[in-house]
Design a protein that fits this description.
homotetramer; alpha/beta; Rossmann fold; Dihydrodipicolinate Reductase, domain 2; 2 domains; 7-stranded mixed sheet; 14 strands; 29% helix
Amino acid sequence: MIRTAIIGATGYTGFELLGLLSRHPHVTLDYVTSRADAGRPIGALYPTRQPMVLSDVEALPLDEIDLLFVALPHAAAAPFVARGLTAGCRVIDLSADFRLRDAASYRQWYGADHPAPALLAEAVYGLTEWARPALGDCRLVANPGCYPTSILLALAPLLAAGRLADATIIADSKSGTSGAGRAPKVATLFAEVSDNLTPYAIGHAHRHSAEVEQEMAALGGDAAPRGLLFSPHLLPVTRGILSTLYLPWRDALSEAALRDLYANHYTKEPFIWLLPAGETATLAHSVGTNRCTISLHPVPERGHLIIVSTLDNLLKGAAGQAVQNMNVMFGWDERAGLTA
Amino acid sequence: MIRTAIIGATGYTGFELLGLLSRHPHVTLDYVTSRADAGRPIGALYPTRQPMVLSDVEALPLDEIDLLFVALPHAAAAPFVARGLTAGCRVIDLSADFRLRDAASYRQWYGADHPAPALLAEAVYGLTEWARPALGDCRLVANPGCYPTSILLALAPLLAAGRLADATIIADSKSGTSGAGRAPKVATLFAEVSDNLTPYAIGHAHRHSAEVEQEMAALGGDAAPRGLLFSPHLLPVTRGILSTLYLPWRDALSEAALRDLYANHYTKEPFIWLLPAGETATLAHSVGTNRCTISLHPVPERGHLIIVSTLDNLLKGAAGQAVQNMNVMFGWDERAGLTA
Amino acid sequence: MIRTAIIGATGYTGFELLGLLSRHPHVTLDYVTSRADAGRPIGALYPTRQPMVLSDVEALPLDEIDLLFVALPHAAAAPFVARGLTAGCRVIDLSADFRLRDAASYRQWYGADHPAPALLAEAVYGLTEWARPALGDCRLVANPGCYPTSILLALAPLLAAGRLADATIIADSKSGTSGAGRAPKVATLFAEVSDNLTPYAIGHAHRHSAEVEQEMAALGGDAAPRGLLFSPHLLPVTRGILSTLYLPWRDALSEAALRDLYANHYTKEPFIWLLPAGETATLAHSVGTNRCTISLHPVPERGHLIIVSTLDNLLKGAAGQAVQNMNVMFGWDERAGLTA
Amino acid sequence: MIRTAIIGATGYTGFELLGLLSRHPHVTLDYVTSRADAGRPIGALYPTRQPMVLSDVEALPLDEIDLLFVALPHAAAAPFVARGLTAGCRVIDLSADFRLRDAASYRQWYGADHPAPALLAEAVYGLTEWARPALGDCRLVANPGCYPTSILLALAPLLAAGRLADATIIADSKSGTSGAGRAPKVATLFAEVSDNLTPYAIGHAHRHSAEVEQEMAALGGDAAPRGLLFSPHLLPVTRGILSTLYLPWRDALSEAALRDLYANHYTKEPFIWLLPAGETATLAHSVGTNRCTISLHPVPERGHLIIVSTLDNLLKGAAGQAVQNMNVMFGWDERAGLTA
């Protein structure tokens, strides 16, 4: 049993993580913090029988913690990541602070200097299925964004095979509102979201674009795509992301070879569900699980391949992938605590 | 054509009223105000082609206005009502400030002294179908609450006939979230309301209880009911209220006599839809219209009468009834501007 | 490990049960049947990785089965219950066929003669928390209806204490659409249910009225209530039932004594969540769990007690309670397979 | 006043049309038909006070009708279109039967020989804003599909300007469930659609692909695009279509020139709402109106233009555009009956 804590447990992601860790067979969850609600039980904020009481982050005894989860907004997270590492904790950061490897890029997309640039070099981008070798010994994991996870898992076999050189990838993504957080805003009120669909930050304006492009370059190497066109839409659902990906498909790879390529990577993966030909991924394939479901739809008569990818933004897109990364970091069965 | 203005046009009720008045055949809508958004077009706040620009309320030339609509929160509304009356406007107040006739009762339920008690005596409680004689000459209309409208219209024929003496009335009401306003709160976020149903202030705790009990007493006179048990529930819909009413039913009134009683009052009403035996009111009967739909369900083998009543909380429950009241005040066809 | 089978696994209840049993630590799920879809994998009907293939019910080797679950519509279930018992299986019937103890009552409410009246006498009404002594040795469990479970668990402490003598109980219940089954009908299409709320069979017309009244009489004995007024409403949610119960409350029981009475019965129950004063049960307290959440709301100034009760209609209201009953029947930890 | 009738008035489109025509200032709606429900009032099928009674189509006196609307499924519609024309009616067909100009294409996409190929040549494809010259004198209008209307209105200015030569257009479209009709199916049950998002017939498999490609070729002429990649998704809303369009954008047209091009075509259109730079079309911009809302999003750094287009699938995507077409056919104000 290792000892864990969550800094920032009252947002949707933090609360999901609280649930996962409190049922995990190999960890104790010793502290959960909240600045605004310190001293209150988590049951005062959510309809849960979970009895934990929120602590003030400043009172957190970091030296008692083996693994620290940070679930704060970007910029707020990095200082606590640094403190955790200094105190000897390993850290999984669920914010965006350590996803971009380059401090200049961070400044460009997040509009401020990086709060802890010295730590960028050692952070491991934790897209679990593609990051295992680096996770075992690392101190710091940058847990990927929800949209990037849905897009990158769908593209990775083609990227790694060098099949997307020079392509512009189009990702038309649709997300539930829990991804927008629990801080009240007009845009996420029921009366605004229900019966509606809202595209936002479309084109090349959403911060996750930078994250996807960085990782496409890393996975693609010399044969990396040219770039990403990314259009998120706010769906009238609470959980789930569906990304519909459009890729130019003019080369010689047959459909059979394509399916083999994906099967070779993903058939044995516990949290990737590769659908057979003729089936299409929907939110219902993934929501409530740590799975990413992927379906492949070649359209040779129009020179494109469409890939549909779905996941639960709070599980495989956030807290679930964090637990999966923990399982790899500590050498446990990767499914521990995630199969309920 | 009369000249109108709305104080507080950016909430859901105010915006609904803006739409109704801007299409009304007998009025011009000259000013709409918002303290927070003065200077901005209404199109910056809602996806509408309506071109009006919000004014600051302090700049409102009250002497140019014939009829003033006040759509502010309680306590905030009364001072502007008073200013409007002083300037010679007639006023329809959509807040709760003039619904309770008694300043002591206001203090008890709203937790503060009434801001303009001298005006209470002349305010007409604008449940249109039962208030017409008083509306013609009045200066000030207290537009009823959404829940009270749904409950009182369903009970009024029995109340007026003295058939509910000493009864305790049970009103189990369910409302869409637009009734809770557009100010962001956790409780009305999509992720909290969707897939959920939330009772609140049940029993005798909601302010609308006092309003209904006052009007039950007024309509019932010597044969008024003993009181109301009122349980509102927040529904995962944007618009609509459905009230399921339970009344003891042990007297000699036959089902035929009951239906006749309601038919005599309501068959010719343009905005009451009395359903025939065998049909049940649903939200879909009323939402998007200014109607109150009512169905009667005697259950003699269990000694009760059930009445189901539905309306659109932003129309018959707020802005629509305000326009209906205006139509009566000025002697126009009561349906003007409301039948689209 | 015991061997189990489900007859009728493709409806929402049967599929939920399939999921629970396939993850249960003490059973193997050996057969799942469907007349219409025999030979197809369950994954052809639902987005699930569960690999079981549906069998034809006629090919089911009943002599290999220890415990048979029947999840068919009423009237269709009873013949298979009889066959299972004859073959030596113990049986949990999730239909309504063995809930009413009296064949005449069955004929009145279900409009046909009972298909297997000789078995009525031995069926145990499986409201688990109140049925444990009878469950241990029984052959046949009649799993309660979803609405009755929500109503009876909320009333049982008062019934057993004789505190509801001669009362007429009012149950205003609201249910998600999964309770209406997966057979397509206009009334359960998304376009009909969304943005709507539909009361149906209100008063004393729904079959679950008879079931509740029977059990109120059984629990109440000489001090049983006079009867039930029951109004179900179809909610725009998929899962969950919330019942708002209105009880006359004119006797000498104090609020403290009331809360003690409930606490004595329920504090140690793993699947009853009794909320403290000041909190109100919502769907979110129960959906996705096998819990029934109960909150008590005395309204002495209006002579009533309100109780709010919520559960997940597919879990505590159907498949979850069936598994809970199985756990008691076989002497296992009552939470086995239900705490995920 | 002209005399009109609707063949097939009980589906969502037919019922919407019934509402529009019954409030239209220049027509009488004399007959509405339904084979399955002949003899019943429309109020037995929908919660409406509209009193019309459904007729059997065989009893329809076509010689009394000036304009016949046919709202039947494809293949069922064409024979009635032919009968209407023979009887001297003008006809607006809301089915797909006369949208494809070529009988061979119809056979390929609809899997059967065209029922009335002799009439194909004279049918006018009624995308109103681009079809006015042909509508004045025509006898037969093929009312466009809902998805094609959303896509073609968004592309038409570029197509007509020859700016999309050789491009492959990607249309990622999302639709509410009313577009799937009122015939009950598992796929459109509330419990399947809610909390879900389902892509279907993606790539080049949906019949509307053929319709869009035909009209892209017609509008584009020598500079027509190469083809369409079309991915519809079923949204958890009842009404509305949002199409996100991806166009290669490598030529010399500046953003200012692009906006001028669209403004020149659309600024004066009553039913096209062209949003200014910085705003994005959502369902809420269009649902409940006959509008198509369009926003332009150039992404020069990724070589693409994104266009977002929204409409109400039952109004501008079906019944509303049918009325708009009627208004042009008869020389009335194009907004008649459509601005409520």
